């Protein structure tokens, strides 16, 4: 038998950390959110997913699609992963129908091999980088002429936060109102170069898998929290507006206050979930106190903490305040065991982060 060609594409995708958080689905099947959200894309030098997609007529059809995540077989049968495969295959099939000379890749099983170089499922947005990389790797494999916006729409169906990792800089996910979700995708609010002094330090307090996944946690919050209604009706719309203004004006004090208030509001709805969900721990709370002390000592706001669904803190600051923020964090948290800091050049300079390798 002639050796069959193996088609292959690799890509990396960055993590994004929201400063106005997505927490709640209005449609679990299409993965549509109850509110818009806004994030900063971190540079890929420290935290990133690397995914390779391949397909070949030599892969037995019976094996189906597969994913090796961090060296272990992972599930691809979930409805959300399946939705990504379905959308990407349909687009490839349309290209093949229009041009019969193209190889029929859409009918072949896809093998994915993916690696996160940071803790998975620990509140550091692995699902965001993971699904952004998955979607782009397959889109590259299929040579789809898809824009970052189109890929954002597909990645959203894998994990909501992933739609924001297709762009660099400051990124909004507009919740949209179409029943089919066709207007629920990300757009870039500002290029990284608009505010290039922005930095983030990630305090890795625990690499352990969280007890309650984001998907399940937000569903419990929507179903049981009274405070959640106030958050989506009043708090988030106000924060989105204030955050976009702060970014446009490069107003760090305003950016920081909205970031910290929104993180507090999100974790308050978790505490108001019944039974309550606690993502932060004692070290997380010590980090909050340390940031407050840094801001008090500076006499102005130079640092902003935020926590996703996990105990690990991300602290935003401006480059010129590195010593005041990172230096003080090391000194104040130094006695606490079991944490380490990863400082990151917060921003990536390109509109699209497609860095095909
Ligand atoms: P996190 O806070 O890390 O985003 P989530 O609970 O939102 O945690 O999602 C974690 C899940 O995301 C993992 O259990 C896995 O299913 C998926 N995931 C993480 N990394 C990848 C990846 N590189 N490729 C595909 N899926 C991934
Ligand atoms: C707290 O995007 O992980 O990080 O759509 O169910 O996969 P699914 O959830 P996910 O939720 C992220 C929640 C958050 C806030 C945010 O990133 O906006
Ligand atoms: Co996630």
TrEMBL record:
One BP annotation, GO: isopentenyl diphosphate biosynthetic process, mevalonate pathway
Entry EC number(s): 4.1.1.33
From which domain of life does this come? Answer: Eukaryota
Alphabetically ordered keywords of this record: ATP-binding, Kinase, Lipid biosynthesis, Lipid metabolism, Lyase, Nucleotide-binding, Steroid biosynthesis, Steroid metabolism, Sterol biosynthesis, Sterol metabolism, Transferase
Q: Which terms in the Gene Ontology molecular function aspect does this entry carry?
A: ATP binding; diphosphomevalonate decarboxylase activity; kinase activity
Pathway this chain belongs to: Isoprenoid biosynthesis; isopentenyl diphosphate biosynthesis via mevalonate pathway; isopentenyl diphosphate from (R)-mevalonate: step 3/3
Pfam family for this entry, one: MVD-like_N
Q: Where is the Diphosphomevalonate decarboxylase-like N-terminal domain?
A: 13-186
Q: Which InterPro entries match?
A: GHMP_kinase_C_sf, Mev_decarb, Mev_diP_decarb, MVD-like_N, Mvd1_C, Ribosomal_Su5_D2-typ_SF, Ribsml_uS5_D2-typ_fold_subgr
Identify the residues that the record assigns to the Mvd1 C-terminal domain, covering every copy: 200-357
Which stretches are transmembrane?
A: none
Q: Which Gene3D superfamilies match?
A: 3.30.230.10, GHMP kinase, C-terminal domain
Q: Name one GO cellular component term.
A: cytosol
Listed under catalytic activity are:
(R)-5-diphosphomevalonate + ATP = isopentenyl diphosphate + ADP + phosphate + CO2
PANTHER family to which the protein is assigned, alphabetical: DIPHOSPHOMEVALONATE DECARBOXYLASE (PTHR10977)
Q: Which family does it belong to?
A: Belongs to the diphosphomevalonate decarboxylase family.
Name of the molecule in the record: Diphosphomevalonate decarboxylase
Organism placement in taxonomy: Eukaryota, Fungi, Dikarya, Ascomycota, Pezizomycotina
């Amino acid at each position: 038998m002639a050796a069959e060609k193996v088609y292959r594409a690799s890509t990396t995708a960055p993590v994004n950390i929201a400063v106005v958080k997505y927490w709640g689905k209005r449609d679990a099947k299409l993965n549509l959110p109850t509110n818009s959200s806004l994030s900063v894309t971190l540079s890929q030098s420290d935290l990133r997913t690397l995914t390779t997609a391949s397909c070949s007529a030599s892969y037995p059809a019976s094996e189906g699609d597969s994913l090796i995540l961090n060296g272990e077989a992972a599930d691809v049968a979930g409805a959300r992963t399946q939705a990504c495969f379905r959308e990407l295959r349909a687009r490839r099939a349309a290209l093949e129908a229009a041009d019969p000379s193209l190889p029929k890749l859409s009918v072949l099983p896809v093998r994915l091999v993916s690696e996160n170089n940071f803790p998975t499922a620990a509140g550091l947005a692995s699902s965001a980088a993971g699904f952004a990389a998955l979607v782009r790797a397959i889109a590259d494999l299929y040579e789809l002429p898809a824009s970052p916006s189109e890929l954002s729409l597909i990645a959203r169906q894998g994990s909501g936060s992933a739609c924001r990792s297709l762009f660099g800089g400051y990124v909004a996910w507009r919740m949209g109102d179409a029943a089919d979700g066709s207007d629920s995708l990300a757009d870039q609010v500002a290029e990284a170069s608009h505010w290039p002094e922005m930095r983030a330090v990630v305090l890795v307090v625990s690499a352990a898998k969280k007890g309650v996944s984001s998907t399940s946690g937000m569903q419990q919050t929507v179903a049981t929290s009274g405070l959640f209604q106030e958050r989506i009706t009043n708090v988030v719309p106000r924060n989105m507006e204030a955050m976009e203004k702060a970014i446009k004006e490069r107003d760090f004090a305003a950016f920081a206050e909205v970031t910290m208030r929104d993180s507090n509001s999100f974790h308050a709805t978790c505490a108001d979930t019944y039974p309550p969900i606690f993502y932060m721990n004692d070290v997380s709370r010590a980090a909050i106190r340390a940031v407050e002390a840094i801001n008090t000592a500076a006499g102005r706001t130079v640092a902003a903490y935020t926590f996703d669904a996990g105990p690990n803190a991300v602290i935003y600051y401006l480059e010129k305040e590195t010593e005041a923020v990172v230096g003080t964090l090391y000194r104040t948290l130094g006695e606490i065991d079991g944490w380490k800091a990863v400082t990151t050049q917060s921003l990536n300079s390109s509109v699209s982060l497609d860095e095909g390798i």
